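Database export, one record per block. Field names are fixed; values are copied verbatim from the stored entry.
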Amino acid sequence: MNILSTAVKGRLVGTLPGRLLRRARWWAGLPQRVRNPELWDMYLEDRRTDVALQALVARDSNCVDVGAHIGSTLLRLIELAPDGEHVAVEADPDKARVLAERFPSVTVINAAVSSTAGSARFYRARRSGFSSLRPPIDSEVAGEIDVEVIRLDDLINGVPIKDGRSVPAVDFIKLDVEGAELPALQGGEMLFKRDRPLVLFECGPTGSTDAFDYNRLDLFDHLRQLDYDVYAIVDFVYGRTPLSAAEFDKAGTYPYRGFNYLALPAGHPVERLIP
């Protein structure tokens, strides 16, 4: 994605034209939904995720959007938590610039997130949303740049928010970093002990994390070690029990349960949100 299309797409987020484009994409996908009805959990994931966000994000929640892209989720977090402090972390400098212009009240950090701080090669994908610290699986590489790498723990060790204070207690984290979710979580040991944030995270199909040398069960085990339960979005909104390791592993095979999940501190109340 070049800077022009990034800027245009970023500025369409949350606008009437942007909403109309999303609706048009939904209707354009109707033939596929008819052909593959077994994937309805995937088709409805965005809508169910919004229901979950409404239940989990309070008006004063402090939110961190890691892998903010062009700001679709960030905008929703701001809408749901207008009294909270918000931080967006985005490795692509062009996207980070657009985010800073589009959301002046948000602290935008132009960096990737991993288990150790430093610098790394970042691969820009030709297909929007697939750029990563490893060459993307589902897109051609459009370019390579070196980026700063921070840890989630660095957010509570002096990264300033807009008025110069350190980042306050983190209530909610969205984590979508194209396969680097486990290294990102590993860099947040102190943050998770201190704040116990609620987490919305992406985990693609089986094999999508291979480039980072871990598998789905490694990610699940790390969250369990943090004393977190893992939910498929569909299970959370219908008030069901958390996933077992075997269920989470199976969710990465066809027909998928979804590519986004919730990690909540063990014992967090869950109730049915959809009649």
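Remark 1: Residues 42 and 258 are 5 Å apart (CA to CA).
Remark 2: The longest helix spans residues 16-28.
End of record.
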